[in-house]
TrEMBL record:
It comes from the Bacteria. This is Mannitol dehydrogenase family protein. Pfam families: Mannitol_dh, Mannitol_dh_C. The lineage of its organism: Bacteria, Pseudomonadati, Pseudomonadota, Alphaproteobacteria, Rhodobacterales. It comes from Maritimibacter dapengensis. Residues 292-481 form the Mannitol dehydrogenase C-terminal domain. Keywords: Oxidoreductase. The keyword Oxidoreductase applies. Residues 35-284 form the Mannitol dehydrogenase N-terminal domain. The keyword Oxidoreductase applies.
Length: 495
C-alpha cells in the first residue's frame, strides 16, 4: 500500500511531481493546438512519431502541431479511455543495455471518440487546423489485393464504404469523407502520411484513398489525386507490447501509468519531403528528409522486418519466447546472420553512412538486446502479410538474379511448420494470423504434399511454378518434419 501511495498518478496536474530523474514536458500543454490526427494510436506511434514531435516541443517548436489520436474499431475505445484518464500523457521507458531510463511525453492532446460511422473522426479531420492525417494500421490493414497489389475493391468493408461514403467503416473511408467535406467547403486537403512497414507506403496510401474515392465520386478522386500528397517514409524502432511487466516497470520508476510504452535505444525516421499543408521540422530532432526513401526502406524492411520473420517462426516452433532469446539460440541467431549476409544483402543498396553489411551488424545487436522483452508471438503475428511483404520480394529477386536463396526457402518451410499449429514439444500454437484457419489447413496437408502450401496463390502467386524453388522448399519442409527444425537449420548452416 505504501508503494501505491508513493506513485505519481499521471496527469497534467501531477507533472510537477514527477519522480527525480524522470523528465516531463517543459512546454505548456494548455497552449498546444492540434495539427495532426493519428489513426491507429498504439505503442509504436507513441514511442516513435509522437516522440519526435515531443522533442520539437521541448525546444519550443511545433506547438501548433499537437496530435489527436483516433481509431475505427471498437477496441480502440478502451485505449481512448485509458489515455483520457491521464490527460493523454505517456511514460516512455528506454531499454538500453547500459541502463534503463524513463520520460513522460505530452505531444498528444486528445483522442477522438469511437463511434459507428466514424462521424467524430470525419469531423476532426475536416477541421482546417488538421494538416496531416497519419496512420499506423499495420501492414495488413490496407485492404491490398494480394494478386493485383492494389486496393481490394471487393472486400466487404470497402464495398460498404463505397456504398455509404458518409458513414464508413474504415480509416480510409473516413479520410475520403473528410476530404470530401474539405473540398466542398473550399478548404485545402491534408497530407496523408503512412507510418507502416510497407515499401512505398505513401504510394500505397494514395492508391487506397484515390481508388476508394473513385468508387463513389470520381471527381473527388481526381481532386484528391491532384491536390493531396502522400509522402513515402521509413519508420524504425522496436517497441514491445505492454503487459504486466511493463506496467510494473513504470511503477518502479514511481509512476502509475495505465498504458506505458517500452522501447529500444534506437529510432530512425526517413521521410519524403512532400507535404501539401506544411509539416513540423522533424529533421531538427533527428529525422531525415530525402528524395530517396526507397533505399532506406528496402534495407530496413528486407533485413530487419524480414529478419524478424526468419527468426520468430523457428522460435515459435521450438518454444523460444523472446526475440533476444532467439538470438541467443546457437542455431537461430546464426540462421539470421547467414540468411541476411548471403541471401538478402545482395539485393539491398547502401544508404548514406550505412552499408548493408554494417546494417546487418546493427540489427543483430538490436535483436540481441536482452532488455527488450519482445515476444516471438508478437513478431510472428500476421505472417501472411509479413512474409509476402518482407521475404518473398527478396526471394523473387534472388531467383531472377541467380543468387543464393536456400535459407529463404527454409524460412518458408519453417513458417509452414509453424502454421500447422503445434510446437515440437507438442504444445499448441494459438491462432496468430487473420487467415490462420486457411494457413493451418494448408500446412497440415503440406506435411504429406509440400506443393499444397505453395499452391496458396494469395501468398505465392506464380512462385509455385518455379521448379527450383519448389524443390528446395519441399526438401526443407520434409526435413523439418522428419528430422526437426534444429536439424534442418543445422544442415543449412553447416551442410
Amino acid at each position: 500500500m505504501d508503494e501505491l501511495n508513493s506513485l505519481v498518478t499521471l496527469s497534467n496536474a501531477t507533472l510537477g511531481d514527477l519522480p527525480e530523474g524522470v523528465p516531463g514536458p517543459t512546454y505548456d500543454r494548455g497552449k498546444l493546438t492540434p495539427g495532426i490526427v493519428h489513426i491507429g494510436l498504439g505503442n509504436f506511434h507513441r514511442a516513435h512519431q509522437a516522440w519526435y514531435l515531443h522533442r520539437l516541443m521541448q525546444d519550443g517548436l511545433a506547438l501548433d502541431w499537437a496530435i489527436i489520436g483516433a481509431g475505427v474499431r471498437p477496441y480502440d475505445e478502451v485505449q481512448r479511455k485509458k489515455m483520457a484518464t491521464q490527460d493523454n500523457l505517456t511514460t516512455l521507458i528506454e531499454l538500453d543495455p547500459r541502463g534503463t531510463s524513463a520520460e513522460v511525453t505530452g505531444a498528444m492532446i486528445g483522442y477522438v471518440p469511437i463511434e459507428e460511422g466514424n462521424g467524430p473522426l470525419i469531423a476532426q479531420m475536416a477541421d482546417p487546423a488538421i494538416r496531416i492525417v497519419a496512420l499506423t494500421v499495420t501492414e495488413g490493414g490496407y485492404y491490398i489485393d494480394p494478386v493485383t497489389k492494389r486496393l481490394d475493391t471487393k472486400h466487404p468493408d470497402i464495398v460498404h464504404d463505397a456504398a455509404h461514403p458518409t458513414t464508413p467503416r474504415t480509416a480510409f473511408g473516413a479520410m475520403v469523407a473528410a476530404l470530401r467535406m474539405r473540398r466542398d467547403q473550399g478548404l485545402d486537403p491534408f497530407t496523408g502520411q503512412s507510418c507502416d512497414n510497407l515499401q512505398g507506403n505513401g504510394a500505397i496510401l494514395r492508391d487506397t484513398i484515390v481508388s476508394l474515392a473513385r468508387m463513389s465520386d470520381p471527381d473527388l478522386a481526381h481532386w484528391i489525386d491532384t491536390n493531396a500528397t502522400f509522402p513515402n517514409s521509413m519508420v524504425d524502432c522496436i517497441v514491445p507490447a505492454t503487459g504486466e511487466k511493463e506496467l510494473a516497470l513504470a511503477r518502479r520508476f514511481g509512476i502509475d501509468d495505465a498504458v506505458p510504452v517500452t522501447h529500444e535505444n534506437f529510432r530512425q525516421w526517413v521521410i519524403e519531403d512532400d507535404f501539401c499543408a506544411g509539416r513540423p521540422d522533424w529533421d531538427k530532432v533527428g529525422a531525415t528528409f530525402t528524395d530517396d526513401v526507397h533505399a532506406f526502406e528496402a534495407m530496413k524492411i528486407r533485413i530487419l522486418n524480414g529478419g524478424h520473420q526468419v527468426i520468430s517462426d523457428p522460435g515459435e516452433v521450438l518454444g523460444v519466447e523472446t526475440i533476444s532469446g532467439c538470438m541467443e539460440h546457437p542455431l537461430i541467431g546464426a540462421l539470421f546472420r547467414k540468411v541476411a549476409l548471403e541471401e538478402v544483402v545482395p539485393h539491398v543498396h547502401a544508404v548514406p553512412d550505412m552499408t548493408p553489411e554494417a546494417y546487418v551488424d546493427l540489427i543483430e545487436a538490436r535483436f540481441s538486446n536482452p532488455k527488450i522483452v519482445d515476444t516471438v508471438r508478437r513478431v510472428a503475428f500476421d505472417g501472411s502479410s509479413r512474409h509476402t511483404g518482407f521475404i518473398l520480394p527478396v526471394l523473387r529477386d534472388a531467383l531472377a538474379a541467380g543468387t543464393p536463396y536456400d535459407g529463404l526457402a527454409l524460412s518458408q518451410a519453417i513458417w509452414a511448420r509453424m502454421c500447422e499449429g503445434t510446437r515440437e514439444d507438442g504444445s499448441a500454437i494459438a491462432p496468430n494470423d487473420p487467415i490462420w484457419r486457411d494457413l493451418s489447413k494448408a500446412a497440415a496437408a503440406a506435411k504429406d504434399d509440400p506443393a499444397v502450401w505453395l499452391a496458396q496463390k494469395n501468398l505465392y502467386g506464380d512462385l509455385a511454378g518455379n521448379e527450383a524453388f519448389a524443390a528446395r522448399f519441399s526438401h526443407w519442409l520434409e526435413k523439418v518434419w522428419s528430422d526437426g527444425t534444429e536439424a534442418a537449420i543445422s544442415s543449412y548452416l553447416y551442410g
